[in-house]
Target: FIST C-terminal domain-containing protein
Amino acid sequence: MIAVSFNTLNEARRHLEELDGNSGLVLFASAAAVRELSFHAPSRAVLCSTKGEYTPQGYRSGVITGFEYEADLADIVEILHPPVLSASALDAAYRKVEGNANAFLLLLCDGKGGMEEMILSSLYFMDPQFKVIGGSAADDEGGETYLYMGTRRVRNLGIYFNMSARTALVKENIYVRTGKTLLVTEADVFGRTVYSFNGRPAAGEYARVLGVPEEELAEHFLSNPLGKRYEDDLIIASPMAVHPDGAVTFYSQVMSSTYVEVLSSADPLAVLEETLGGSPYKPSFVLNINCTLRDQLFTRDGLWGAFDMAMLRFCGNTTGFISFGEQYYNRHANQTMILLLVE
Model:
């Protein structure tokens, strides 16, 4: 796999038009760029709209990036709405690679559709240990997200890669437990909205536990998201908005009658060094998916430059994008970085 990056639409368009029959291509770009490039995309190209791009030169915004691969390694499947309509096609593609420990699924979703958990649950036929990495496409000013398979716009898609080189998935959280928990006592799971914690209005109780005024709660979302416990793993659920009735909407589902953990931020650069230091091998290629809320935090605190130095020292053949949510195995996360490592 080879990371590519283009500074202009003309450069990316020429690359699409010159793509040979033995190559596939996945490109990440702004919604406007994706719309323009879709007119020139061959069937072996996938386009995904983003909030920012990660390139072999580091974090950028407003460029086009992605990766090229041998076309016979991949099987691209459109995921319809509802996702169960695509179960047989996904199952057939999975059966071709299920015996390969290096295979993985790249899952790209409509970041405004709120369907990530439903899509993941429709993959019930897959081994829970089968590698799934993904991100949710970001929107433009009009709230539209864009995913294309060639010139055809789709809502969601999956690409099964039948790899021979070793692969690994790495998830990074830059948040730690505070020791404080909240019991979800009333929630709309599919609407991703919590109405009450501990039997009290959600926003007021969330603010009380943080020790901040309720009217300032939204200012603490970047620093104090909530964590959902899955066995030995912690999956972040990021709050999106506070409503006048005291309800809080999240970027992922939060279940009633479960406990969530209040989190606080750690030193992101120290966590990154630990993440990269724990890699099982030196990769030849890295796909890097970062949440838009991490981007906001890193931009606010001026961290991208130091992040790039560490990441590109780890592997210069790196690409990725800023997403509206991350897929990691059978879970949908927020405020997270997911890395695919190819040896």
The domain at 175-265 is CATH 2.40.30 (Elongation Factor Tu (Ef-tu); domain 3). The mean pLDDT is 95. The helical segments are 9-17, 31-38, 87-95, 116-121, 202-210, 268-277, 292-300, 304-314.
